[in-house]
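Fig. S4 source data, part A: sequence.
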Amino acid sequence: MRAAALAAVPAGAAPQVSLSVSLDSVYVLMGKATPLHIKLVAPEDAKGNIVIPTDSMCGRVEILSMADADTASVGNGRVEITRELLLQSFDSGAYLLKPVLYIDGHDTVASKRLALKVVPAMVDSLANIHDFADVKDVRRKFVDYLPDFLVDYGLWILALAALAAAGWYAWKRYFSGRPVSEVRKAKPVPPYELAVRELNALRESRLCEQGREKEYYTRLTDILRSYLQGRFGIYAMEMTSSEIRRSLAATEGTKADRHLVDQVLEIADFVKFARLRPMPSDNVRAFNSAMQFVDNTKPAPAPAPDGEHGKEDEEAGANKPQTTDK
C-alpha cells in the first residue's frame, strides 16, 4: 500500500510553495530499506532550501542514503524539485517520522509527519532446531595442498633457489677439480713470458700483410710498454716516446739495449702520427728489435741444484724466442 502524499503550508508562507513527502508503503520488514519521496513545488526565482534531518528520520529509523535533487519545470514560472531518501530500521515497531522543512528567508514550510511500521522478521522457534548442514565438497587446487609459507613466500624461495643453482654451476664450471690453494694463489704470468707470448701472437696475426700497419705498431708498442712496466716498474703506458727514452736511459737494466726500443718507437711514431706506410723490411726490423730487447733484458734464471743444469739448458734452448729474418 502506498502512503498518500501530504503537504502543509503554515500561515505567512507564500501560497505558491508546496512541500509533500510520501512512502511507497507504511509497512517495511525489519532490516529492509524503503524509499521516502520528497516533492517541492516553488517559483523559479525562489531562494529557499530543503532541510532534511542529518542521520535519522526518528530515533530508530536511519537514513541509509540520499539521492541528488532532480529539478523540472511545471509551467507558470514554477519548478518541481524531487528527492529520494532510503530509510532503514533494525527495530520493529511503529514510528512517527520527523518532518522535512523548506526555509526561504523568514518563511518556513514543513511537511506532514508520516508514520512507518517496521515489521519483525519471521524466524524459526526453538521447537524447530535444524541439524548441521552436510560438509560441502569443494574443488581444491594444487596450491591448497601447499604449506602456508610456500604460498606466501614462494616467489622469494624460487629466486633464492635460482641464485643458488647459478652459484653452484659457476663453481662447477670454473673451480671444480682445482685445489682451493691453487685458485686463491694463482701465480701471475711473468712479464718476460707474457711479452714473448704476445709478440708471437702479433706475428701470427699478419696485420702488415693486410695493410693494417697502424694497428700492428699500436699493438707492438703496447707490448713493449706493458713489459717495461711489469719488468722494470716504468709506467710507460702513460708516457710519450720521449719520456720512455729518458726513463730507459736512467734505468740500469735498460741502458745497454735502449737503442732497440728507440728503433721501434721511431718507426711507430711515423706510422701512427705522420701516417707513413713503412716498407716490409721496416716492419721486420721493428719486430726483431722488440723481440731482441725483451730477450736481452729477461731476468736471470735462479741457480739450480747440481745435476739439473743440463736439463735447464735444454729447456732454455727449446723456449728461446725466434726473431723474424724475412
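Fig. S4 source data, part B ends here. Confidence is low (pLDDT under 50) at residues 1-14.
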